[in-house]
Amino acid sequence: MLLMIIVDDAGSFIPAMNHSPWDGVTVADFVMPFFLFIVGVALALAYKRVPDKLDATKKAVLRALKLFCLGLVLQGGFFHGVRSLTFGVDLQEIRLMGILQRIAIAYLLTALCEIWLKGDEDVDYGYDLLKRYRYQLFVGAIVGITYMSLLYGTYVRDWEYQTSGPGSIEKSFFVKCGVRGDTSPGCNAVGMIDRRILGIQHLYGRPVYARSKQCSIDSPQNGPLPPDAPSWCQAPFDPEGLLSSVMAIVTCLIGLQYGHVIVHFQKHRERIMNWLIPSFSMLVLAFAMDFLGLRMNKPLYTLSYTLATAGAAGLLFCGIYTLVDIYGYRRPTVAMEWMGMHALMIYVLIACNILPIFIHGFYWKEPQNNLLKFIGIGP
Questions:
Q1: 147-159 residue pLDDT tens
Q2: Distance between alpha carbon 115 and the CA centroid of its chain, in Å?
Q3: Is the pTM of this model over 0.85?
Q4: Is residue 379 reached through a cis peptide bond, with omega within 30 degrees of 0 on the bond before it?
């Protein structure tokens, strides 16, 4: 939560804090996987004992539906810009996917795995964890293989789209693809599947690749299009789309296994070792894959990106555990603990512009005379 607030406020003027325009990762690109990772850890603790599997399943489905619907309201387009003072969304153009929707999908599948796919074996060593939760690991492997097969095996045809320019003049653009296994912004299987299933009008209208060198003179910031800009530069693309959300499930499942370490091991040293080894292993594998051409890419949520961010999340989790639970330095983390306990409220107020809209929305005669100006912050 703290990292999310920092990158939201600083990302616009510090490139290293903003999302990567395409390949590669920045600080901001770790926020979403960290969310998913800790959801998995929490699920291992929440479902430590499941007396009634059907009741637990029903409650998990209901929670996921509530979270998904909340995401539709918050990120579907109902809340507009901070200074537009408008509201409402055309259902023909509502954004169907988003951050909360992705978390809801990953949460639901991970919760179902934890409720139904647990073995009865005793756990004394790290290898015993693999045996007890082998079916969950099998699900994660199937999900990852399915994603890789679709990303690199799906044939992407040529496609076209329309945008409305100044004066509501509609322009048509043709994107030439005819390729298989491409991971460029215009011809990847992730975008094609979203356009086919969700419809291009229901995708995010401000794609991250609009800040790339190909699409912006002021890259890595938004700017005017270069004269030779590719035709896909203004096309909608959802960074939380369907296929990329498939790999988000894997991140949540990895976090679930870290939670199992807490459940089954009591000694600090055992927990630390069972966290550090897989964390470093995932990081090494991720950088090796990136070096071999399977680039880390947040919008596509590639396998190398999944492993790198999950490994980093594991190391951070291990570091905080050492600081707080082993050495007892809890006071410096009190603020972050409060933020974690009220994560959804903070997300709604800040990340979805509810608080900024509230501050800008009350004014005297002119929009410029708002609460910020009253307390001496505004112009």
A1: 999 999 999 999 9
A2: 24
A3: yes
A4: no
What's the CA gap between 30 and 204, in Å, rounded?
20
Helix axes 242-264, 99-116, angle to 10 degrees: 50
Please list the residues that pair with 191 across neighbouring strands.
none
What is the rounded CA–CA span in Å between residue 171 and residue 163? 5
Q: What is the pLDDT of residues 15-52, one digit of tens each?
A: 667 888 899 998 889 989 999 999 999 999 999 999 99
pLDDT, tens only, 255-305: 999 999 999 999 999 999 999 999 999 999 999 999 999 999 999 999 999
User: In DSSP terms, which residues pair with 162 in a beta bridge?
Assistant: 172
- Under 8 Å CB-to-CB from 162, ≥6 apart: which residues? 170, 171, 172, 173
**Is there a contact between 243 and 150 (Cβ–Cβ < 8 Å)?**
yes
Tokens of 26: 């920045």
Amino acid at residue number 109:
L
What are the distances in angstroms from CA 267 to CA 28, 55, 118, 124? 34, 33, 23, 12
Instruction: Spell out the alpha helix ranges (H) of the chain.
Output: 2-10, 31-46, 53-75, 99-116, 126-132, 134-153, 189-197, 242-264, 268-291, 303-321, 334-341, 343-346, 354-361, 371-374
Degrees to nearest 5, angle at CA 314 with 313 and 315 = 90
- Tokens representing residue 353 in the block: 């512009």
- Residue 205 token pair: 């209208």
Token digits of residue 15: 């490139």
What token pair was written down for 74? Answer: 């918050």
SS3 per-residue string spanning 96-124? CCCHHHHHHHHHHHHHHHHHHCCCCCCCC
| Pairing outcome for strands 179-180 and 155-156 | antiparallel
20 sits in the region (left: phi over 0; alpha: psi -120 to 50; else beta) called: beta
Interatomic CA distance for residues 376 and 234, integer angstroms: 38
Rg (CA), the chain: 22
Residue 285 structure tokens = 């594998």
Q: Which helix (H) or strand (E) holds 163?
A: strand 159-164
Distance CA 28, CA 55 (A): 37
Planar angle of CA 12, 84, 201, nearest 5 degrees: 80
Cβ atoms within 10 Å of 328's Cβ, excluding its own? 8
